[in-house]
Design brief:
- The protein is α+β, with helices and mostly antiparallel strands.
- It is built from 5 helices and 14 strands.
- Strands 1, 5, 6, 7, 8, 11, 12, 13 and 14 form a 9-stranded antiparallel β-sheet that branches.
- The termini are far apart.
Length: 332
């Protein structure tokens, strides 16, 4: 078993890597339910509810959650461990304590599987059925679309209905015990083949059905819980580490791209020399219209010759009257 860390250290750290390559320290104590030993979660990736104490009434209120894997015993890990704590130790009558984990195993941000649990009685114990597992359509990030219940899986869960002292995940809300549910399931049953496993939502709900109304969520707007089977690294919601890593890339490439516009103006003046040559050829073409008017006067000489031949023809009628007097002398 790995050494137990103080709760203050456990809650302040956001990323956990198993310190040894031995067997993972988490054991699902089914035989001890509803008094399972949950102290072995102290050195795993756990987070307490960050909202105000008792932010939801009765069985709707959650106090914390944890993730782990058996990395070390298997590389990559082949089993995931999940823990979810209620701020109640039981309820009277037919009231139940219900919650679900919604899981994404193909890194597209949508729900592929759902693991749900239901507690009943006071002190609480598992209802019948107490643990339910579903496959989902992988089309939404907030619900298990087209849920189909799957039976005969490797999912097993244990319960400690009176978690107290240092084993409680939320220490800041005074006394009182909690009910802690711890489960394990193989990555094969989760449908995992490669990459990270994201626990998109872990919420209390109205029933052990993944599409029922939810209340207190420990993974939702702050991001998911993430299990990396290849390295054993477990990341909690709200972890800022990935964001700075990704934002460093755009600033580096942005200055590099601004050099491209600098070359664009340089080529623009080079192209403006072409328009300068265009006006030079325009005056050269204006000499052609200048020759056109010169040929027009040349053609006007043709009509000038036409009236010259007209007077030549008028001499013929002048000779006609000359012969008429000659014929007048015969009658005399």
């Amino acid at each position: 078993m790995l050494s137990k860390l103080p709760m203050s250290i456990m809650l302040s750290a956001l990323v956990y890597v198993n310190a040894a390559l031995g067997m993972n320290s988490v054991t699902i104590d089914v035989a001890g339910s509803p008094t399972a030993d949950v102290s072995d979660w102290a050195d795993e990736a756990c987070i307490a509810d960050e909202d105000p104490c008792d932010d939801f009434p009765n069985q709707q209120d959650a106090t914390g959650a944890c993730i782990a894997s058996n990395f070390g015993a298997a590389i990559p890990a082949d089993t995931a461990y999940l823990r979810f704590d209620f701020d109640e130790t039981g309820r009277n009558g037919n009231n139940t304590l219900d919650g679900c984990w919604l899981v994404d195993v193909d890194q597209n941000g949508n729900v592929d599987r759902a693991l749900c649990f239901s507690l009943v009685g006071n002190p609480a114990d598992f209802a019948s059925p107490g643990v339910r597992f579903f496959s989902c359509a992988d089309t939404t990030s907030t619900t298990c679309a087209n849920d189909v219940e799957v039976f005969g899986t490797s999912a097993i869960c244990a319960l400690n209905s009176s978690t107290s002292g240092a084993d409680r995940l939320l220490q800041t809300c005074g006394g009182g015990n909690d009910a802690a549910v711890e489960c394990s399931i193989t990555l094969t049953d989760l449908g995992w083949t490669s990459g990270n496993i994201a626990l998109l939502r872990s919420c209390t709900s109205t029933s052990a059905q993944p599409n029922s109304a939810t209340f207190d969520c420990l993974a939702d707007t702050d991001g998911p819980f993430v299990i990396d089977p290849d390295t054993g690294e477990n990341t909690l919601p709200g972890t800022p580490t990935p964001t700075p890593t990704n934002t460093a890339v755009p600033p580096t490439s942005t200055p590099t791209n601004t050099d491209v516009p600098t070359n664009t103006p340089t080529s623009t003046p080079t192209n403006t020399d072409v328009p300068t040559s265009t006006p030079t050829s325009t005056p050269t073409n204006t000499d052609v219209p200048t020759n056109t008017p010169t040929s027009t006067p040349t053609n006007t000489d043709v009509p000038t010759n036409t009236p010259t031949s007209t007077p030549t023809n008028t001499d013929v009628p002048t000779n006609t009257p000359t012969s008429t007097p000659t014929n007048t002398d015969v009658p005399t």
